[in-house]
Amino acid sequence: MGVELGDLAAFVAVARAGGVREAARAGGNGASSLSEAVRRLEARLGVRLLHRTTRSVAPTEAGARLLDRLGPALGEVEAALDVVNGFRDRPAGTLRLNVPGVAARLVLPRIVPPFLAAYPDIRLEVVVEDSFVDVLAAGCDAGIRYGERLEQDMIATPIGPRSQRFATAASPAYLDKRGRPEHPRDLLGHACLRGRFSSGAMYEWEFERDGEIVKLDPSGPLIVRVSGAADLAVDVALAGGGVAYLFEDWLRPHFDSGALEPVLKPWWQSFPGPFLYYPGRRYLPAPLRAFIDFAASMGPWKP
After folding, report:
1. Burial letters 170-207, b for 16+ CB under 10 A, else e
2. Structure confidence by residue, pLDDT tens digits, 186-224
3. Where are the domains of the chain?
4. Planar angle of CA 71, 86, 295, nearest 5 degrees
5. Does CATH place domain 163-272 in 3.40.190.290?
6. pTM listed for this prediction
7. Which of 21, 74, 138, 256 sits at 20 to 30 Å (Cα–Cα) from 249?
8. Taking a C-beta distance cutoff of 8 angstroms, is the pair 214, 204 a contact?
């Protein structure tokens, strides 16, 4: 059939990016060369792989089936070629991580700057996505998530703080006006700043003390998308607009400055820290292996 591997890779890049220009920007390739590669592949296969409009590109049924099979296969090809990287003085290439917004905010800032300084030939691409995804199908090498059930062929290793807490907070002015809650159920009478997952579900506020667990679904004047607009909820809390419920580490600078006051601190619930997860294949890409080793060298983080 004479299909070129580069044409297959171009198709995968365009299909995943949702457009030729988007794929060109993400991969540093020319848009015209990507477009020509896809047309050449379609001509060789004798079937249309992509629906093209002036605004977007989407796989046809044939293209979707090919994409499902090609993604993992090309990943294995890249991993095989990357074995050669082990013979270089320094690992090189692109490392793609799929992480939730909270990890991009609270975990990666401590790791990424020294990692990039130690490995100048590695380019790091971070995709922020709060839903749990198939990292290989998403074109990523690894992901960071909290406590999800992973597939059997995935390996999970601790990264970041090993224990974290959700915290509730409000401005002193708000608490002076509305009163300071003494029990989590008191929050039902307060203006609570809520969060919604990308799935559309609202997350509960959960508290625990001396074996007693309290779950609440409070109401309030503001609902934001989890991670994506969490800073807006913090800004509203700082302005005296209500009570925020967020990661303690996210709120700590405002606790330290006194701009926010901890609410119900003895009830704050702890949970395990995040994990870096990646496919359990024999040969890991050199950039990923370097990142795994570098993160592990930083040792366990204090809560």
Report:
1. bbeebbeeeeebeebeebeebbbbbbeeeeeeeeebbb
2. 999 999 999 988 778 888 999 999 999 999 999 999 999
3. 5-83, 90-162+273-297, 163-272
4. 80
5. yes
6. 0.69
7. 138
8. no
HEC secondary structure over 93-147: EEEEEEECHHHHHHCHHHHHHHHHHHCCCEEEEEEECCCCCCCCCCCCCEEEECC
Same topology between domain 90-162+273-297 and domain 163-272: yes
pLDDT tens string 147-196 = 755 666 688 889 988 889 999 999 999 999 999 999 999 999 999 999 98
Report which secondary-structure segment, H or E, holds 12: helix 5-17
Fold for 90-162+273-297, please state it: D-Maltodextrin-Binding Protein; domain 2 (3.40.190)
- Residues 243-259 have a mean pLDDT of 96
Q: Helix 31-45 to helix 5-17 angle, to the nearest 10 degrees?
A: 110
The helix (run of H) or strand (run of E) holding residue 251 is helix 248-257
Check: CB of residue 106 under 8 Å from CB of residue 249: yes
Residue 193 near residue 220 (C-beta atoms within 8 A): yes
Tell the residue number behind the tokens 């922020």, with chain if given.
128
Contact at 8 Å (CB) between 209 and 266? yes
* Token digits of residue 137: 């199908």
Fold (CATH) for 5-83? Arc Repressor Mutant, subunit A (1.10.10)
